[in-house]
Sequence to fold (760 residues):
Amino acid sequence: MEKNRLSLDITVEGIVQGVGFRPFVFQLARRRALCGEVANTADGVFIHLEGKSEGVLAFIKELSEKAPPLSHITRIVVSKGTLNGCTAFTIASSRPESRKSALISPDVAVCDACLKELFTPGDRRYRYPFINCTHCGPRYTIIDDIPYDRPNTSMKHFVMCEKCRAEYEDPEDRRFHAQPNACPACGPHVFLHDEKGRRMPSEDPIRDTVSLLKQGAIVAVKGLGGFHLAADAVLDEAVMRLRKQKRREEKPFAVMAKDLEHIVAFAMVRPEERPLLTSMQRPIVLLEKKQPNPLAAAVSPENKYFGVMLPYTPLHHLLLENGFTALVMTSGNLSEEPIAIDNEEAFSRLKEIADYFLIHDRDIYLRSDDSIVRHTAGAVRMLRRSRGFVPRPIFLKIDAPPVLACGAELKSTVCLTKKNQAFLSQHIGDLDNPSTEAFFQQTVSHLERILDIRPGIVVHDLHPDYLSTRWALEARKTEKRMAVQHHHAHIVSCMAENRIQGSVIGLAFDGTGYGPDGTIWGGEILLADERAFQRMAFLEPVPLPGGEAAIREPWRMALSYLTAAFGPAFDFQKIPSLNPMDPKAMGIVVRMMQRGIQSPVTSSLGRLFDGVAAILGVRQRVRFEGQAAMALEMIADENTRETYVCPWTPEIPIRIPTAPIIEGIVRDLMDGMPSHRISGKFHATVIEMFTQVCRTVAEETGIRRAALSGGVFQNAILLKGFVDALTRYGFEVYTHSQVPANDGGIALGQALVAAATVKS
Fold:
């Protein structure tokens, strides 16, 4: 009989803990009449299997083909086991070990099975706002260490009742080893507090919160990865008050609606956007506004789009079942600060914004903002990669040594590598205040611990004044350090997620990046591979008068480009949008540029967009990064095929002049051409001009692969236009979909440059 029996030891790596993988293995083994055991380990899941050969082989096949929906298998290692004469299959206790390789599932939306129970009268979890199972709920934000077992999560403070314990220990139950498993008798609860943080008497805090929101109150609501600030999205006064108190004058607010039927009351939902909205990640999705629509104008001013998401926690569902068209659900912070996650922290930091607090007593260990996506140019584009996607890795083409990449300054993320996996962190924010710096450091230490990565190389941006650079140089003295140029990192991040190697023509377009020559880059065409780059073309540099002030006040960039085109004697007040400006202030700026005072030079395409926006009167000042360029995109006539003539000399590196474009724009403006047509013509010019430069670079180098990266490619007109134009001329075009094109993807590129350099 022993000849017909086979024994195997199997290690399954990937996202296989806390997702129902062990009960799946248990039930699969029983169906195949096999014996042995399954256990969580620091590597993933270990299976010892014994039984008839045909049953064992069938088990191996089904293991990968029928795995649970939240699992993600990266590798299955099979070796010969020892026949020990077992008679049953069991689920063993987790095995803590020193080396940790198991992957952790991201936080995901509540599943349909739990939702059915949530709204079923008589169910013991009826209207319980913390209902979950192995197929849904919190993961990353409540874990402190692995293996992913309850004692290593914030649920360790809640002792399961007999009924929950019975579910937890029953391999046939949907809640078998669901670590956040709980019910009203033994789990977390919600509480309503006033603006002073004092607990209010309430038999039903959720019902009372609904009543307050309908009266125009602003309520800080504790969710999965932090607090939201909630307000009824149809109440103009409430939304305007939220803007004022949050100090977020014009940047759009995200909204949350009960279901797709409620969303279509105020936004267009294309077929390709529906699965994004209903996915288990539940990101914010950019949707085109309906006109007219019932939402307050202040939700998303001067913008064609709403950022919309569906509920992803039971608490959200319970709030939104009460007749709201939508709720504003914006991050619980003052502008530019990290989102609040702790109750006492929220009472302190949000007391000047929120009228009330709907809190709960389950701790959040790591903050995680909502992710933001849009569908454009034929694919899903990640604008902010955070809740729902982190810490799922990006799989690399090469095996990398342990690297910590510290990212850039804006839209900060960090990245850690292990073998062929790159772990890009959740969105951290702009590194311009102490609280964000503390969050940055916490994220690094948390990821190093739960991934058990001890980086031997720390990578940072070339810019010496970035906080992330200073931290890498000062705080991490024991590791080898490496500087990677900003735009090189952009291009390599695109290569990394597309798993391509070798040389590409990289179009690196953004607002600001420190160049090796000490100037500010941002309108670059690079010949790049994973280790090095050559600057093949760039926009003719112009002064950035006042440095950072020119980014906040695009009218300064208008003067810079007009001076470059027409000279310093140009009468700026001929331009209608500049006519109201103080001539004395404009004269000071011109003299600053002439004398080189606080006027570094820049080749940035983002700054060119700012200058054109100011010339057209679209924005003279901005309240958030990229606002002027976004406004210019919003007004553009996308059907315009006309372009401005922009001759350039085909000598590498190619200097692309901006003066002919500015001259043409001023001429059209003086002739009375509408701004929307000029904007459309400008967009078309940028696409045509850089496409032709790419053709010249391709003829020079023989490379016909193009990688597009940088924050400018958040512009849907440019992204689609470049993909179409370059493809038409025979280029293989690579773009971002897994990580942001903006600086949120920089750390991935830095990590791969370091890994490739070391391996070479």
In short: The mean pLDDT is 94.
